[in-house]
Write a structure and sequence with these properties.
This protein is mainly alpha-helical. The protein is 69% helix and 0% strand. The chain has five helices and no strands.
Length: 91
């Protein structure tokens, strides 16, 4: 799976999890300290969140960040590599 497809999957899952928690973007913003605009940009794929931002959002929703990534073992390995690559890129 291409990097763009993986990113879109994460953004889609983030929105699904937010809705599953019955949280509006404003509520998630208040709980996480991430601006509502940034949440909108992430969910629509206009911005790529940092690992810190993903962790803030997940903590606010009380979910594990792993929920945002693929379930199949091979996909988990790919997601792990993606995360490590992103961390390296932004560190």
């Amino acid at each position: 799976m291409e990097l763009d497809e993986q990113e879109k999957y994460v953004y889609t899952r983030l929105k699904q999890e937010r809705e599953k928690c019955n949280m509006s973007q404003q509520q998630l913003s208040e709980e996480s300290g991430v601006s509502q605009n940034m949440i909108t940009y992430i969910e629509t794929g206009k911005r790529t969140p940092s690992i810190t931002t993903i962790l803030k959002l997940c903590n606010a929703m009380k979910i594990s960040p792993s929920i945002l990534f693929f379930n199949a073992d091979s996909e988990k390995i790919n997601a792990k590599h993606l995360i490590l690559d992103l961390v390296e890129r932004y560190m």
